């Protein structure tokens, strides 16, 4: 009897599929049953080969060897993944295997993971595709009952390949050209450089901004609201002339307000659309300070490990119509605290999810993020996992509630011959707002129901409010994600048709890659965070001066993304796109070679490099400070200070770990200092009666779960953990 090889993206998903399909014979990297052989990748097992694969001369970075434009890019097995690749290849090569079922993540990158493995293993067997948006037992069973022909996804693979190859041709050549020309580690790319340019553009706007003082004239009625003067034509309430403002103030003082019109209308506020990844990342950044990468990591665990949320890497806020029949089971799954009250209300009233949430035309690869049919097990969730799960479920439940209804009142008046206006609102029905425990029953700027046209109201007070125009805000992670999703704000002078195209194409990058792009910009010392806002470093500013103008353009990058989308839809040939990218890479290299500019390090220290003797640079990254050799060919690095999760016993703030070896010391901004050895001893003593080694292990695991790269506290505890 012939068998099918099922290729999952990660071991956890592979093991879930194997369990559901009854495969129990587990060996290294494989679980076999009577009909199926389940194996998996570890993320990517195969990638695009390094330049020296094509020519040995590329082992050394030299400007004269550029551009590198191989006719056909090759694949190579990633070194650390070689063992698992060989395991997968053996299963694919078995005589009793007749077909392959791709079960990697259902999206562009997941398709690439699988197809590159199949290509490198030279597999010619029939391909089928498992396409599911959650990894619950029910979803897996239904998915295997509805497997797709693998050929249906050939264009998706072509788009994924085109994206990866374009990054190789443009990114490899531009980065090597800049680095060798200016002898500095200068990384650029088709998405990261325009992203950096948007942060720089916003910083320049703020720098050039000059505030203007303005005045607003108000008048408080005896039995009514506060009125504000407004310009008769523009409707603006601000006056930029102090003399004019003071003149108007005197003109209306103690004058009655004559009501010229009263307009009352009912307004319905629909529940917000369901979450896509970018909106969740934005909101988590605003509410909790989580990075985009951190939010995605937590969502991935809720999808893969806990199985309580659907696939997170989605750019859609809508659901496909075939999901309507699953709503009852999903409501049942979330009928737990703190949602039971709202689920009871939904069931009691027989409410259905709002019809506007279902739109097949606005769902591409994946629908919005919603709960699965699996009930949550809170004791197994971290605090971050609970927070994100509750955010998604709350938004999901709100979609079943009716709209919020308000009475909006627009009052127009004349005081001293000048036009004034007042607006008021009153909540009539709470609707979906009840899910968020914000009933908003208080009236805003209360307007008595008896007020009508031609009424005269006496004033009790009038005066001027003074204010200043404010500069645009620096880009936080939330704002930068929004800018990447819709960069039109940074594209002044472009025609409306192009701006609309960019909006429809989803901006620069994808929901799956934006978090990594932001992370890479920080790790390359091109972008840094001060408080909640991003700022371009000196290195980043110089890079933007050195790269070709079009490579900084969100316009060009968005057009590339649109072309990738066309490849995915079968409207553009991949080879045509790649030829454009190769030609463009050649132009970039030529421009950099001819450049007469120079790069200057402004962070040079007085410390010589112990390897080559050149003065070292002091750089910051998200985990602390380090010194690196200014000669990129030397590559020597040394940590100065590392951010940690260790709390100061005095002020409870996080401390830095400085020094090396036995001289490591924890330092707090309040002045507290403590040797690492003393810290470990104190920590052990505190934990002795309260926690076991298992507790410490759990703490260390949580540090890793939070996405903190090698925190010093975890390092210190690790030494204790590994004793005996």
TrEMBL record:
**Annotated region described as Disordered, given as residue ranges:** 681-704
What are the recorded GO MF terms, alphabetically? DNA binding; DNA topoisomerase type I (single strand cut, ATP-independent) activity; magnesium ion binding
Catalysed reactions, as listed in the record: ATP-independent breakage of single-stranded DNA, followed by passage and rejoining
Pfam families given in the database record: Topoisom_bac, Toprim
- Ranges for the Topo IA-type catalytic domain? 153-589
Q: What is its EC number?
A: 5.6.2.1
Q: Which UniProt keywords apply?
A: DNA-binding, Isomerase, Magnesium, Metal-binding, Topoisomerase
Domain Toprim residues, every copy: 3-136
Q: Where is this site: Interaction with DNA?
A: 61, 168, 176, 313
Q: Which SUPFAM superfamilies match?
A: Prokaryotic type I DNA topoisomerase
What biological-process GO terms show up in the record? Answer: DNA recombination; DNA repair; DNA topological change
This protein's record includes keyword Magnesium: yes
Q: Does the keyword Chloroplast apply?
A: no
Instruction: Enumerate the active-site residues.
Output: 311 (o-(5'-phospho-dna)-tyrosine intermediate)
Task: List residues binding Mg(2+).
Answer: 9, 105
Any transmembrane segments, and where?
Answer: none
Cofactor(s) recorded for this entry are:
Mg(2+)
Composition bias type Basic and acidic residues, residue spans: 681-696
Map out region (Interaction with DNA) in residue numbers: 187-192
Gene Ontology cellular component list: cytoplasmic replication fork
Q: Which family does it belong to?
A: Belongs to the type IA topoisomerase family.
Q: What does this protein do?
A: Releases the supercoiling and torsional tension of DNA, which is introduced during the DNA replication and transcription, by transiently cleaving and rejoining one strand of the DNA duplex. Introduces a single-strand break via transesterification at a target site in duplex DNA. The scissile phosphodiester is attacked by the catalytic tyrosine of the enzyme, resulting in the formation of a DNA-(5'-phosphotyrosyl)-enzyme intermediate and the expulsion of a 3'-OH DNA strand. The free DNA strand then undergoes passage around the unbroken strand, thus removing DNA supercoils.
Name of the molecule in the record: DNA topoisomerase 3
Q: Which organism is it from?
A: Salibacterium qingdaonense
């Amino acid at each position: 009897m012939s068998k099918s090889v099922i290729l999952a993206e990660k071991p956890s998903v592979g093991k879930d599929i194997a369990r559901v399909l009854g495969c129990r014979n587990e060996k290294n990297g494989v679980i076999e049953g009577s009909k199926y052989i389940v194996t998996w990748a570890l993320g990517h097992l195969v990638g695009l080969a390094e330049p020296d694969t094509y020519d040995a001369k590329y082992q050394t970075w030299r400007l004269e060897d550029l551009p590198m434009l191989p006719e056909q890019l090759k694949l190579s097995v990633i070194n650390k993944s070689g063992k698992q690749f060989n395991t997968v290849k053996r299963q694919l090569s078995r005589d009793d295997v007749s077909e392959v079922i791709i079960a990697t993540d259902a999206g562009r990158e997941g398709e690439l993971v699988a197809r590159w493995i199949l290509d490198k293993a030279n597999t010619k067997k029939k391909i089928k595709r498992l396409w599911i948006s959650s990894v619950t037992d029910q979803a897996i069973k239904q998915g295997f009952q509805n497997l797709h022909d693998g050929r249906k996804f050939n264009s998706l693979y072509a788009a994924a390949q085109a994206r990866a190859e374009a990054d190789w041709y443009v990114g490899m050549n531009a980065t090597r050209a800049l680095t060798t020309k200016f002898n500095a580690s200068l990384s650029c790319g088709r998405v990261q450089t325009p992203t950096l340019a948007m942060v720089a553009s916003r910083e320049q706007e703020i720098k050039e901004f000059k505030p203007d003082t303005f005045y607003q004239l108000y008048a408080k009625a005896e039995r009514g609201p506060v009125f504000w003067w407004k310009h008769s034509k523009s409707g603006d309430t601000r006056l930029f002339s102090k003399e004019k403002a003071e003149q108007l103030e005197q003109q209306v003082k103690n004058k009655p307000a004559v009501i010229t019109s009263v307009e009352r209308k009912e307004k319905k506020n629909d529940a917000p659309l369901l979450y896509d990844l970018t909106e969740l990342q934005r909101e988590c950044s605003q509410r909790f300070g989580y990075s985009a990468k951190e939010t995605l990591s937590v969502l991935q665990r809720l999808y893969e490990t806990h199985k309580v949320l659907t696939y997170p890497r989605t750019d859609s806020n809508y659901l496909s119509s075939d999901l309507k029949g699953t709503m009852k089971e999903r409501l049942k799954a979330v009928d737990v605290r703190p949602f039971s009250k709202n689920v009871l209300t939904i069931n009691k009233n027989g409410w259905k999810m709002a019809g506007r949430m279902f739109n097949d035309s606005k769902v591409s690869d994946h629908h919005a993020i919603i709960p699965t049919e699996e009930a949550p097990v809170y004791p197994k969730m971290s605090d971050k996992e609970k927070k994100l799960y509750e955010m998604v479920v709350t938004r999901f439940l709100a979609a079943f509630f009716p709209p919020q209804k308000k009475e909006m009142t627009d009052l127009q008046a004349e005081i001293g011959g000048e036009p004034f206006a007042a607006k008021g609102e009153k909540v009539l029905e709470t609707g979906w707002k009840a899910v968020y425990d914000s009933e908003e029953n208080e009236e805003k700027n209360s307007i008595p129901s008896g007020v009508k046209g031609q009424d005269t109201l006496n004033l009790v007070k009038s005066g001027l409010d003074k204010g200043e125009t404010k500069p645009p805000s620096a880009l936080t992670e939330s704002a930068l994600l929004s800018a990447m999703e819709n960069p039109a704000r940074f594209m002044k002078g472009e025609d409306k048709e192009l701006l609309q195209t960019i909006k429809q194409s989803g901006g620069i990058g994808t929901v799956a890659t934006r978090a990594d792009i932001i992370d890479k910009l920080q790790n390359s010392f091109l972008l840094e965070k001060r408080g909640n806002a991003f700022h371009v470093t000196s290195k980043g500013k110089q890079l933007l001066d050195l790269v070709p103008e079009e490579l900084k353009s969100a316009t060009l990058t968005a057009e590339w993304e649109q072309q990738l989308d066309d490849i995915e839809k079968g409207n553009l040939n991949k080879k045509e796109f790649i030829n454009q990218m190769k030609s463009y890479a050649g132009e970039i290299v030529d421009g950099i070679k001819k450049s007469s500019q120079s790069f200057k390090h402004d962070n040079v220290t007085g410390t010589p490099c112990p390897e080559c003797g050149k003065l070292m640079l002091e750089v910051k990254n998200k985990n602390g400070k380090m010194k690196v050799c200014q000669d990129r060919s030397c590559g020597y690095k040394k940590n100065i200070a590392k951010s940690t999760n260790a709390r100061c016993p005095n002020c409870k703030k996080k401390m830095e770990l400085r020094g090396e070896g036995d001289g490591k010391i924890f330092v707090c901004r309040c002045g507290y200092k403590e040797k690492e050895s003393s810290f470990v001893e104190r920590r052990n003593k505190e934990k002795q009666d309260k926690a076991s080694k298992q507790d410490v292990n759990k703490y260390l695991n949580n540090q890793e779960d939070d996405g903190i790269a090698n925190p010093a506290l975890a390092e210190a505890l690790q030494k204790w953990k590994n004793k005996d």
